[in-house]
Amino acid sequence: MKRISILGSTGSIGVQTLEVISNFPEKCKVIGLSAGNNIELLARQIKEFKPLIVSVKEEESIDRLKKLMGKHVPEIYAGMEGLIKLSENNELEMVVVALVGHIGLIPTIRAIESGKDIALANKETLVIGGEIIKELILRKGVKLLPVDSEHSAVFQCLVNKSGNDISRIILTASGGPFRNTPREKLEYITPEEALAHPTWSMGPKITIDSATLMNKGFEVIEARWLFNVDVEQIQVMVHPQSIIHSLVEFKDRSVFAQMSPPDMRLPIQYALSYPERWDGSRLKPLDLVEIGRLEFEAPCIERFPCLSLAYKAIKEGGTSPAVLNGANEVAVGAFLEKKISFQRIYKLISQVLEEHIPGDGKSLESVLKATNWAMGRTRELVEEEGS
């Protein structure tokens, strides 16, 4: 039985992970759960899955959670201390990192240092600290299993194959809600429109990242570290049906693709079950006749320049990806709060990247320092616009 902690159990990935676990009670046991502000949902999860340890975002939420609890009262912690305790617990085998933003980096590092396997759904961890995580994974001999549908697809295509045989990795993108929106109209996009993703149901931050294609840029950076390839070997292709989740071309020009209906429960289940494949009869089967047509096109960089910023950051290396992420977190938050326009997200990130002098990306101190600088500088620019 696999003993698991879920960091971010009340978010979209966390909820779906618990759904998968509930389908396989003989194979998985929940040891720890963490949540942000959705204390009511966390309380219900605790009653159902009976974890040993729980973490909440704020200290003030602990009393509120205890009042909602039934007979089962686990150990309760708060903040980063709680996330670390959930990551290092001796009962654990695997940590599912489903947090949003740079907060996922430190708990992931601590989990790896404690010898836990990682099921990673937090893109920012590898964007900020790819060099650090890669070195730790190799040194500790633990598994880093991707939960994102695109990276899970690549991972599945590479099972029992040599990474040295890779010619290209092609990550697919739905194109988001503005795939066909004229450039001149993007300036007037509202948060409500940007949150209406045509294919996936996700949290607000990742949904906006999908609308700008920054999410796909992050996935390019992730793929570079997950599969040990040069960034020039990673391409992005728009595929609005989201049936082919990614493709791998090998040096003999054979191309492997992983296909399935767009349902995050499949890559989550594979990350939990690997190297086995558990029964998927609860998931919708793929019906290509019903789908009828699969479309592909190159991404429009003029319409979605954030994708080019991600390529720029990973080519610069060092602390540039951390700065990219930090600036993006603040810019997306400002857009959701209606402080800046949709187009201004790119412009802010670009300006902060231009001001940054890349440093060493191999130490936790340097990437966190770069992240904090980028977030602070972006806030300054947002405030200057509002004054």
Key attributes of the depicted protein:
about 375 residues, alpha/beta, four-stranded mixed sheet
Secondary-structure map:
Blueprint: E1 2-7, H1 12-23, E2 28-35, H2 39-49, E3 53-56, H3 61-68, E4 75-78, H4 79-88, E5 94-97, H5 105-113, E6 117-120, H6 123-140, E7 144-146, H7 149-158, E8 166-173, H8 183-186, H9 191-194, H10 204-212, H11 214-226, E9 234-238, E10 244-250, E11 255-259, H12 265-273, H13 288-291, H14 306-316, H15 320-336, H16 342-355, H17 364-386
Parallel strand pairs: 1-2, 1-5, 2-3, 3-4, 5-6, 6-7, 8-9
Antiparallel strand pairs: 8-10, 10-11
Helix pairs in contact: 2-3, 4-5, 5-6, 6-11, 6-15, 10-15, 11-14, 14-15, 15-16, 15-17, 16-17
Overview of this protein structure:
48% of the residues lie in helices and 15% in strands. It has 17 helices and eleven strands. It has helices at residues 12-23, 39-49, 61-68, 79-88, 105-113, 123-140, 149-158, 183-186, 191-194, 204-212, 214-226, 265-273, 288-291, 306-316, 320-336, 342-355, 364-386; strands at 2-7, 28-35, 53-56, 75-78, 94-97, 117-120, 144-146, 166-173, 234-238, 244-250, 255-259. A seven-stranded parallel sheet has the order 4-3-2-1-5-6-7, sandwiched between helices. Strands 9-8-10-11 form a four-stranded mixed sheet, covered by helices on one side. α15 (320-336) runs parallel beside α17 and α16 packs across α17 (364-386). It is globular. The model has no long low-confidence stretch (mean pLDDT 95).
